[in-house]
Amino acid sequence: MTPDTDASLSVGDASVVDEAADGGEGLADGPASTTGDGPTTTESASDQPVGTSPFPDIAVTDIRTGQPVDLAGFLPSDKPLVVWFWAPHCPACNREAPDVAAFAAEHAAEFDIVGLGTQDDLAFARRFVEQHSPPFTMLWDESFESWRELGVRAQPAAQLFDADGTHLGTWSGSVDQDGILAALAAR
Known about the structure:
23% of the residues lie in helices and 25% in strands.
């Protein structure tokens, strides 16, 4: 993917650059990411091999309640977890939010989805959640620590974790619903 440098803006200590190839946005200082062709199978977003744990222990905010939440509290669980990485200003995130919501509703018995946003500010994030009303937990990390820890450098993106916290795959760009379902079937 080639960043469109005319579309860059600075957010906190990170520079955000629109990625023309898939409509997503990436951090200028991060490596090129995949385009949703399948999960990254040789390394997870945190440079851990796929098939390893742990899920990070990071404090984030539940956007709907405003309460602090420990990200590690989502795993282990009784179901696998898809983490959807988004930002309020991201046009691709706004476009795909209804599809992610429908995917979550359709597969609620098979896995959980949690949205993990950063960049911008909490008020902007609340407007995003109000506008799209996703049927799953929406979290906010003002510090950007969760994305750094998980190795996410572009949004939208998704990571899949088994119920025990084992990383099963990472997809950059729009949520690859078929890829997520295939990774779940292959486990």
